[in-house]
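Before a colleague's protein record goes any further, I have to sign it off. Alongside the sequence sits a line of tokens, each denoting a local backbone shape. I want your independent view on whether this chain really folds as the tokens say. Where you disagree with what is written, explain briefly why. This is what I was given:
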Amino acid sequence: MLIKATKKIGKSKKSKVSGRLNTLKKFIGIKKKSITQINYKRKIKERKNLILEYKKRLKDQAKRIEKFEKKRNETIKKLRGLVALRKRKEEQLKTLMNKIQEKYYDGKDFKNSINIKKITFEKASSAKYFNKDGTIKNEFKKYVKDKIENSPDFFKPIGLWYGFNDSWYNWCYEDMPSYISSMNVHKLNIPTNLNILKIKTIKDLSDFHNEYSINYISKDRDSNNIIPELTIQHIDWVKVKKNYDGIEFNPYMRKYRNKYDWYETVDASSGCIWNLENITSEYLGKLPKINKNNEENDLKKNKLKFKKLIS
């Protein structure tokens, strides 16, 4: 009996313990489940916050892009306006230059005149061209001859240059006033029997260029060979000088000056002579000095004086 009672007590204790264990397991399982749910909800909330923050960033970025695009479009509009303004200004400048060129450079006022004077300038301080009697100095003759034989010219020939009436003076007046400051003015007497090539028309110019032009390839390259070689057209003046005693560009056809590289450097209705034998000059007078601090007034005086000298 005692043994049976003891067994019953043991069974009841075991059932109680197992019951408690089961209850504890259930509680722990519920707790685990609730903790998992809480973590899940927290993660969902965190993700929602991240999405909201991302959307906010995208919105801010979109605003910045919109602001940038607006500013960029305004800048482009301004630049287009500036480009258009520049084009208008360039056209106005071109028109103005054409008017100046027609007035001063083309020689239209004197190309058909009988009384054409061939005028040259000489620095009063050096006087390297002419003797007092009007003849050409032997030193200058030797210099020109030496250049013909030993040093090929590039764009323009080396020799005694002169303008027709006021053509060269007017170019200096507009573009290089210092060249007419304190200059001796001479009128050249060139014998009619000299063989002087006369470029009078666009056909003369084209024929001359086609016969005597040479392509010069510039070797001024950078070390990395980024800058391309430049092909420049110039004249074989050595060949020209073998056939002629001099050359004249009268009138200077300003509208064709950009047609050939070398022709642009001629500047005005002018001539150059390299056979200096029997060339004489008549001294007309000296032009006044042009000071930079009083250039405008000095130029006016200079021009008045020049007009008197060649009249």
User: Anything to note?
Assistant: The CA atoms of residues 25 and 31 lie 10 Å apart. The first helix runs from residue 2 to 104. Strands lie at 118-123, 160-164, 183-189, 196-199, 213-218, 230-235, 246-249, 270-273, 280-286.
